[in-house]
Give the backbone structure.
Amino acid sequence: MKNDEYPPSEDTFFIADNIENEKGESALDLGSGSGYLTKLLVENFSFVVGTDINYGVLKHQTYKTKNLVCCNGSDALKIKFDLIVCNLPYLATDEILDVATDGGAEGFEIPKKIFDSVINSIKENGKFIFVTSSLSNYQKLIDYTQKLGLKTRIIAKKKLFFEELILVESTP
Ligand SMILES: C[S@@+](CC[C@H](N)C(=O)[O-])C[C@H]1O[C@@H](n2cnc3c(N)ncnc32)[C@H](O)[C@@H]1O
């Protein structure tokens, strides 16, 4: 692991299994990390961008991809995407000690920043798919996407030993 890179994990593979049939022109992997999902998206989308708030992680990415941008959410991007995926830092934590996993209070603080950014980057007929968990207040996340005007539904769940992973889809 280099520069605190988050290695592909259960939540990464959970998203991967559920997006393998997604196709289109443009896709964004928000919080690209190792680049595992970004590289997967390159197979089915002609233009793929990965963003991450951690510059070191992007610089030394394990699964190398092009079009990497260091920013919060999609703040630096002026284009809109057919598909945006995000393996959120969703853990409910008092402080943000690890940007890869810590979501802040109720696991909402960092996801909120990401949602506020993403809302400007989804095409009218596009979709935003994110993973969260029973360890966070995931209903609060879902309610917030709806407050932003998105239609949101849970599309898959996966029970692990300590938590249940929840995959959510939001559309304009
Ligand atoms: C749980 S890891 C997921 C990494 C990779 N996508 C995967 O699925 O294995 C979350 C990633 O989001 C990044 N991140 C955290 N907060 C962010 C933000 N506000 N904007 C962009 N990226 C962020 C972290 O640096 C980390 O690489």
